[in-house]
């Protein structure tokens, strides 16, 4: 198991052990079970600005449904902690029910300009009014509560509204002095945050408390009953009536059976909370509970949303960005409400969560495509009413199962509709340029659905999407809601990852490991990108570095440091029919990221995995880096005649894409200059130079030429080799021009072509004297290069040029254009030939042939230059730029920083 996998397992085990040990201190039969943190429909004013603009309550859950859920999970007593009000408690009391009054007050800590929540219990309606009046002054609020025996608890202490970087750490010194009860088990937070809260409380020694009292001039006795011995609680933080009571607090009441006959349970509970004789109970997941809760919430928005009003939205307080986000969300949800089957799905899902099955007719009238989806919903409903354990398990996996089903439906329908869509047939039968031109959308989106669209651009046209989207409306909308819920849930949990990890460092324990997930669309293909990535994977496996590759593929098998997710669909693009793009399941990628305990991402390809990387960035709040292998503008410029407006459109799309990344690795100075120049305007401090290397098998090998080239080439011939894909962007049609120039100058050479591609037949016609070897396996390439005098690379497209380094490593010289990758490797006239055009290459090659001394010097220096590309040096710099250089060395030894960290951790553990 990887270090990060062990980390996840370790914190889960450590937390469970703490729960068991703490619970064992109190006899179970003498403990009242109560969920001290749950909400219903009276939490009708959300803390979130976007919710207030759109007029969304925190939940639509009715009080009786919440009480039912609490009873189902064996709670002995009810309290409902709605935001800033106890209306539900008072309403239940009016019916004669014994209820512990409670509320979750949003208070403002002026000193740190931070809002945080405070749970309070045992107050009267009159005291509630006073507490609400004191919410803007946290110390005054807590002083009043202490003076009137109102018990307070600080919920989810590591989750406060202070931005991604979290609050000022000094604030926690104040909180330790002002609170004596802390929620260490919050059912909607991940186990890491809960455990760190508990660890922090254990670190609060008398010496530290006394020191902070003097430092801040605060007397804890004014706020706390337990100044030094903090007490811990639990609660579900449930808003949907799904998990209420699954997490909570056991309140120890000696001689409970006798006392409950004489005293209301609410008074017994309040006495136990005040005395601090209690323990948390329950199970914490990583993010599944919150994910399901958000799915249910979004479903209820779809079912209950009312028009918020355009004028009201724009007159509401908040930034213009906030209001535009609300406008977009409102329009999306209103569009969703127009589709009856979509509403049927969300209603069925919501009701299934509460044990109500879809109607019998509904289950059978849906089309076969959707039946697995309805079966999954029906299984959840049946489990809710029959098997609570099974129900909880289904909630863990339910969203991913439905998401996978929707992925398959979308992929199937896109494929079937595309096959009959006349416009796509036309695009497929032409070339990629037409497809790129179709990416422009008209400003009037409704025009996309017209029956007879008219051209509106000089170099593009509209697409009639009406028929196409008829089949995709429901699966795409439902897919978006599930993906959105998953993004929101993990973003809420992980949004303060940087702060939480800093908190762990301050404790000296449970620091999240630094580990990279490397996403790519290509790993086992026959191209330079795949080759270089495969070499990096081999090196990572050899040294057991903290990096794992992730590919989406239907045939690749998992291996150490190689993760594989199966595709939900696939497609090809015009011009590259042999390359199949595999479509990943976003939630499967996200689940793998969470389970693997990664904390940063690299992506090597712009298309599908590029989008998956950006999804992880937004959902997991982690840094994402891009490794740039391909110069797409040069590719498009040399493979098709695109007009300037279309090329500019591509550049703008690339600029928008690259600006989403926290850092970019480049293989040449040309790319660095392009990224940091006016075309892309990317921050130069976040652009990192790197390089490739070659396998050890690429070295000079003895032998004669006949074993590689056959009898057609003799030992005395000067052999020029082109190795690579035979396609226009590789510049192969410059080879006939180079050979013609050499022939005119009276130079005789033999040209060998190793490779295949769409230009092969045309090139054979233009070069009848060349030897075409076809595809040469990469394991045979060292022998080929060892018998080569000069590699010719006429490509202006290569960002590095693996073949250059491979050939030089085997003792061959290289002639290439003075652009991008070749400029990073070759010093002209010293270890290779650089030129600006075919004529210049021909001139350099002619000298190479005629001047034997020059030829031997270039070949000798080529070998020396290739050896300077050390994989250890390259990868050490790469790890440093990723922020991993101080945790691991590629020689397997601990770095100095790592040894210091271990020493500091040991000191913290023994209380030094």
The average pLDDT score comes to 85
In the CATH hierarchy, what is the architecture of the largest domain at level 2? Alpha-Beta Barrel
Number of helices: 39
CATH class of the largest domain: Alpha Beta
Q: What is the topology, as strand order, of the major beta sheet?
A: 11-10-9-14-15-16-17
By CATH, the superfamily of the largest domain comes out as Metal-dependent hydrolases
- Main sheet attributes: strand count, strand direction, barrel closure: 7 strands, parallel
Give the CATH topology of the largest domain: TIM Barrel
Helix content: 40-55%
Give a count of the beta strands, DSSP E runs of length 2 or more.
23
Shape verdict: elongated
- The percent range for strand residues is 5-15%
Rg from alpha-carbon coordinates: 33 Å
pLDDT below 50 for ≥5 consecutive residues: which ranges?
419-432, 448-465, 890-912
Overall number of domains: 5
The quaternary state of the protein chains shown equals single chain
Description:
It is a single chain. With 912 residues, the chain is α/β, with parallel strands linked by helices. It folds into five domains: 19-284, Metal-dependent hydrolases (TIM Barrel); 290-420 and 472-476, no CATH class; 513-689, Rossmann fold (3-Layer(aba) Sandwich), CATH 3.40.50; 706-869, Rossmann fold, CATH 3.40.50; 872-909, no CATH class. Helices cover 48% and strands 12% of the residues. It is built from 39 helices and 23 strands. A seven-stranded parallel sheet has the order 11-10-9-14-15-16-17, with helices on both faces. Strands 20-19-18-21-22-23 form a six-stranded parallel sheet, sandwiched between helices. Strand 19 (750-754), helix 32 (760-766) and strand 20 (771-774) form a beta-alpha-beta unit. Helix 22 packs across helix 26. The protein is elongated, with a radius of gyration of 33 Å. Keywords: Transferase. One of its GO terms (molecular function) is glycosyltransferase activity. Residues 528-675 form the Glycosyltransferase subfamily 4-like N-terminal domain. InterPro entries: Glyco_trans_1, Glyco_trans_4-like_N, Glycosyltransferase_grp1, Pol/histidinol_Pase-like.
């Amino acid at each position: 198991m990887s270090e990060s996998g062990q980390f996840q397992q370790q914190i889960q085990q450590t937390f469970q052990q703490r729960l068991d040990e703490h619970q064992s201190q109190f006899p179970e039969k003498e403990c009242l079970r109560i969920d001290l943190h749950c909400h219903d429909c009276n939490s009708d004013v959300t803390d979130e600005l976007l919710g207030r603009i759109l007029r969304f309550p925190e939940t639509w859950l009715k009080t009786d449904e919440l009480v039912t859920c609490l009873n189902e999970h064996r709670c002995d007593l009810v309290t409902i902690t709605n935001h800033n009000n106890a209306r539900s408690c008072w309403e239940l009391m009016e019916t004669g029910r014994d209820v512990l009054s409670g509320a979750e007050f949003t208070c403002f800590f002026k000193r740190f300009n931070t809002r945080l929540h405070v749970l309070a219990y045992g107050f009267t309606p009159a005291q509630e009014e006073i507490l609400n009046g004191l919410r803007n002054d946290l110390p005054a609020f807590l002083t009043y509560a202490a003076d009137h025996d109102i018990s307070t608890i600080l919920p989810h202490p590591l989750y406060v509204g202070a931005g991604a970087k979290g609050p000022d750490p000094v604030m926690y010194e104040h909180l330790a002095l002002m609170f004596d009860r802390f929620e260490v088990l919050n059912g909607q937070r991940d186990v890491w945050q809960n455990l760190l809260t508990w660890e922090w409380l254990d670190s609060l020694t008398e010496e530290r408390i006394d020191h902070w009292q003097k430092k801040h001039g605060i007397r804890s006795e004014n706020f706390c009953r337990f100044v030094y011995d903090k007490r811990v609680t639990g609660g579900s933080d449930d808003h949907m009536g799904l998990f209420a009571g699954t997490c909570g607090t056991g309140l120890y009441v000696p001689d409970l059976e006798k006392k409950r006959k004489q005293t209301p349970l609410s008074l017994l509970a309040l006495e136990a909370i005040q005395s601090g004789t209690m323990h948390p109970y329950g199970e914490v997941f990583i993010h599944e509970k919150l994910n399901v809760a958000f799915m249910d919430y979004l479903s209820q928005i779809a079912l209950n949303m009312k028009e918020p009003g355009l004028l009201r939205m724009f007159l509401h307080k908040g930034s213009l960005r906030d209001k535009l986000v609300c406008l977009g969300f409102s329009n999306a949800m209103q569009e969703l409400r127009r589709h009856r089957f979509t509403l049927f799905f969300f209603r069925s899902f919501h009701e299934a969560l509460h044990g109500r099955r879809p109607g019998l007719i509904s289950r059978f009238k849906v089309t076969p495509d959707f039946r697995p989806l309805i079966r999954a919903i029906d299984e959840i409903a049946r489990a809710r009413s029959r098997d609570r354990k099974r129900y909880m398990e289904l909630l863990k996996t339910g969203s991913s199962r439905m998401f996978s089903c929707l992925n398959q439906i979308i992929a199937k329908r896109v494929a079937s509709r595309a096959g009959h869509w006349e416009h796509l047939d036309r695009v497929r039968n032409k070339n990629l340029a037409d497809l790129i031109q179709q990416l422009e959308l008209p400003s009037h989106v409704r025009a996309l659905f017209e029956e007879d669209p008219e051209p509106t651009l000089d170099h593009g046209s509209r697409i009639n999407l009406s028929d196409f989207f008829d089949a995709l409306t429901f699966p795409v909308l439902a897919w978006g809601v599930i993906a959105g819920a998953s993004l929101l849930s993990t973003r809420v949990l992980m949004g303060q990852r940087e702060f939480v990890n800093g908190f762990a460092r301050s404790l000296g324990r449970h620091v999240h490991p630094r580990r990279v997930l490397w996403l790519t669309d290509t790993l086992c293909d026959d191209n330079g990108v795949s080759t270089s990535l495969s070499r990096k994977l081999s090196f990572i496996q050899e040294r057991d570095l903290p990096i794992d590759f992730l590919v989406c593929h239907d045939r690749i098998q998992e291996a150490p440091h190689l993760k594989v997710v199966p595709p939900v669909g696939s497609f090809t693009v015009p011009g590259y029919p042999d390359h199949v793009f595999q479509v990943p399941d976003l939630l499967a990628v996200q689940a793998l990221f969470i389970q693997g305990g990664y904390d940063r991402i690299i992506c090597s390809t712009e298309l599908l995995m590029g989008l998956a990387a950006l999804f992880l960035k937004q959902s997991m709040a982690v840094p994402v880096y891009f490794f740039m292998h391909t110069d797409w503008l040069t590719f498009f410029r040399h493979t098709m005649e695109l007009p300037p407006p279309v090329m500019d459109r591509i550049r703008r799309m690339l600029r928008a894409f690259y600006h989403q990344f926290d850092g970019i690795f480049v293989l040449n100075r040309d790319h660095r200059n392009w990224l940091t120049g006016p075309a892309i305007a990317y921050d130069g401090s976040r652009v990192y130079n790197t390089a490739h290397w070659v396998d050890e098998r690429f070295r000079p090998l003895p032998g004669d030429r006949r074993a590689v080239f056959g009898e057609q080439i003799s030992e005395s011939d000067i052999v020029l080799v082109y190795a690579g894909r035979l396609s226009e962007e590789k510049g192969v049609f410059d080879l006939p021009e180079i050979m013609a120039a050499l022939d005119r100058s009276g130079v005789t050479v033999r040209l060998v072509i190793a490779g295949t591609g769409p230009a092969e037949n045309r090139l054979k016609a233009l070069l009848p004297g060349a030897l075409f070897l076809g595809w040469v396996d990469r394991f045979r390439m060292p022998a080929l290069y060892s018998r080569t005098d000069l590699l010719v690379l006429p490509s202006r497209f290569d960002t590095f040029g693996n073949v250059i380094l491979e050939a030089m490593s085997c003792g061959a010289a290289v002639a290439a254009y003075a652009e991008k990758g070749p400029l990073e490797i070759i010093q002209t006239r010293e270890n290779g030939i650089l030129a600006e055009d075919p004529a210049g290459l021909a001139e350099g090659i002619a000298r190479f042939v005629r001047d034997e001394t020059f030829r031997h010097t270039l070949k000798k220096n080529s070998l020396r230059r290739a050896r300077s590309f050390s994989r250890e040096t390259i990868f050490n710099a790469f790890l440093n730029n990723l922020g991993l250089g101080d945790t691991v060395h590629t020689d397997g030894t601990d770095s100095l920083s790592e040894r210091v960290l271990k020493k500091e951790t040991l000191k913290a553990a023994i209380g030094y």
